[in-house]
Design a protein that fits this description.
The protein has 575 residues and is α/β, with parallel strands linked by helices. It contains 22 helices and 20 strands. The chain is globular, with a radius of gyration of 25 Å.
Length: 575
């Protein structure tokens, strides 16, 4: 086998192995092809759907400086094909290189979205006018909530993006009401990427008096299991739904989106909700961000109908509108944070990468928002003070519901799971201090231990991301308790699925959660994980107060860094 260039020593272990595998398949004919395969493997591991050849031209990579020459070498290999070929790697005319499965997934998603970007006729126009007339609001300007609901009622495919407090849950509730008013026999399904997000969606529906619908994880809805990764449904055997509403869509990766689109019946409508500025999915792709990464466009026909049914006026887009015209709404108004809110201002400044604006918000705040001392004792003092109310609640033997409620007020969010300034280090700091105060934290289970479920368990009704507490019950026996439908549910410790201590959790794990107060801990060393999307997600988990625990250098670099995932989806939709 030919010797790989020194640049390959920077690959991950998986990247090195894949590079060698491709080199063998290519009969050791061209080392550049093997090197690019390793780069592609690592790019996919970082969440990219493909590798853009524009970014690997030059001396730093150790490949040729001429893109056309590089493309020719790739096309002349035995392992790279183009559209229609069945080869390990696929190269597009735009210079994007894919693993075959991701290329196919992206093609399926783009084709399915194009087919669904169609108008749906209103069945009961007078009823719809009445529904909108009865929807009172306190906004003087254009109500984007109403625009979003009208869009979802009149399109087969719609995307609604908005930050925290912009009313996405309200939109779901209004949609369900108005859909029922249009057609009482519609088969409506609710879903979310994770069990925790599905449970929160379910709770909102139940709190609104609707117990007939059951929100599920997308995997459960599609019948995807460890033994069946393709799922139970397909184009030949579609889901029995007329409308599918998916919340927290920012967490949907390209492969899951492909399975979802292929499983939907031809006439079903799909409504995606989420925050396109949040962290993208753990797996490859940033579907929601791709769909929202353009100026909103509305046709004259849509804006005319909007005025007719809602009384609101929206200016149509001049000139040609894209395939996603009339199908994407980005919510503009936050009902949770006003213009003076520290959290709202921080989120906006981080969102656009404005470091000085972040510093200004911190300087002008009446509350302390930033702690730069990151020695273990400083971190411990900070988080211990915030958790004092919870510790006091546990020690005073208050009931389980009260303990759960108090614990949910505050959370430490970390960028890293292991190492210094991580979830593991914060949990260890707190448990050592509690042990000094007489808590039995050296035991696997102890009274007051907070836990997070890390694996779905449908039999127990517990899902990845669910948090609960280990407490002594009325008989003095240690059991786990969780808040479900505003009641306490007890689970025997022996029946708990995989779980971990959760005085701190990763920012990734916090997606879909909300807390009154949040402390965000960033590492002292630079990390590829640090970017503004991560920080924005962490800040917007807080409803009342956020504290940033970071050095000045790391905070600035995190705000300035933007992780844009490579994908060809936007280009395919514009084609």
């Amino acid at each position: 086998m030919s010797e790989l260039k020194p640049r390959q020593t920077d690959f991950s272990e998986l990247g090195q192995q894949f590079s060698r595998f491709i080199d063998r398949l290519n009969h050791n004919a061209d080392i550049a092809v093997a090197t690019i395969a390793g780069l592609l493997s690592d790019a996919v591991s970082q969440g990219h759907v493909c590798l853009n050849l524009d970014y690997i031209i030059g001396p730093n990579v150790g490949l040729c400086d001429n893109k056309e020459e590089l493309i020719t070498r790739l096309k002349n290999s035995h392992v790279v094909g183009t559209s229609g070929d069945y080869k390990p790697l696929i190269l597009t005319d735009d210079g994007l290189l894919y693993l075959y499965r991701y290329w196919l997934d992206e093609q399926h998603v783009a084709k399915a979205i194009k087919q669904r970007c169609k108008q749906i006729e209103i069945i009961k126009p007078e009823q719809l006018q009445q529904d909108f007339a009865q929807w009172q609001n306190e906004i003087d300007a254009l109500d984007w909530q109403k625009v979003a609901v009208f869009m979802a009622l009149t399109r087969k495919f719609s995307v609604i993006s908005g930050g925290p407090g912009t009313g996405k849950t309200t939109i779901v509730l209004r949609l369900l009401q108005m859909l029922h008013g249009q057609h009482s026999e519609l088969n409506i399904a609710l879903a979310a990427p994770t069990g925790k997000a599905a449970a929160r969606l379910q709770q909102a529906i139940v709190d609104n008096g609707n117990s007939s619908l059951q929100a599920k994880t997308l995997h459960r809805l599609l019948g995807i299991t460890a033994n069946n990764d393709k799922g139970r449904y397909s184009q030949q055997h579609p889901l029995p739904v007329d409308v599918l509403i998916v919340d927290e869509a920012s967490m949907i990766d390209i492969s899951l989106m492909a399975k979802l689109m292929q499983a939907l019946p031809e006439n079903a409508r799909l409504i995606l909700l989420g925050d396109s500025q949040q962290l993208a999915s753990v797996e490859s792709g940033a579907v929601l961000a791709n769909l929202c990464d353009r100026t909103l466009q509305f046709t004259a026909e849509f804006t005319s109908d909007l005025t007719h049914y809602t009384g609101m006026e929206l200016s149509p887009t001049e000139g040609h509108t894209s395939i996603l015209g009339d199908s994407v709404v980005v919510l503009q108004h936050s009902y949770r944070f006003d213009q003076k809110s520290d959290i709202g201002q921080l989120a906006k400044a981080v969102q656009v990468g404005d470091v000085q604006a972040v510093y200004s918000v911190i300087a002008d705040s009446e509350l302390p928002l930033w702690q730069q001392q990151l020695e273990p004792n400083h971190i411990l003092n900070h988080v211990f003070e915030q958790y004092y109310a919870y510790f006091d609640t546990v020690l005073s033997n208050q009931d389980a519901m009260r303990c759960l409620q108090v614990f949910d007020h505050y959370q430490v969010l970390c960028a890293l799971k292991q190492g210094p300034h991580s979830v593991a280090s914060v949990n260890a700091l707190i448990e050592r201090q509690l042990q000094k105060q007489g808590w039995k934290t050296h035991q696997s289970f102890y009274h007051g231990r907070p836990i997070m479920v890390t694996q779905n368990d449908y039999r127990q009704g517990l899902f990845n991301g669910d948090t609960g507490l280990v407490l002594a019950d009325e008989q003095g026996h240690l059991r786990a308790c969780f808040k479900v439908d505003n009641t306490v549910r007890w689970v025997e410790l022996s029946r708990l699925p995989t779980h971990e201590t959760v005085f701190a959790m990763t920012i990734h794990k916090s997606q879909g959660s909300e807390f009154d107060k949040v402390s965000v801990l960033l590492p002292e060393e630079e990390s590829a994980l640090l970017n503004r999307e991560l920080l924005y997600t962490a800040i917007t988990r807080a409803k009342k107060h956020v504290a940033l625990l970071s050095t000045e250098m790391i905070l600035a670099k995190t705000i300035e860094s933007q992780h844009q995932r490579e994908s060809g989806l936007a280009g395919l939709l514009d084609a």
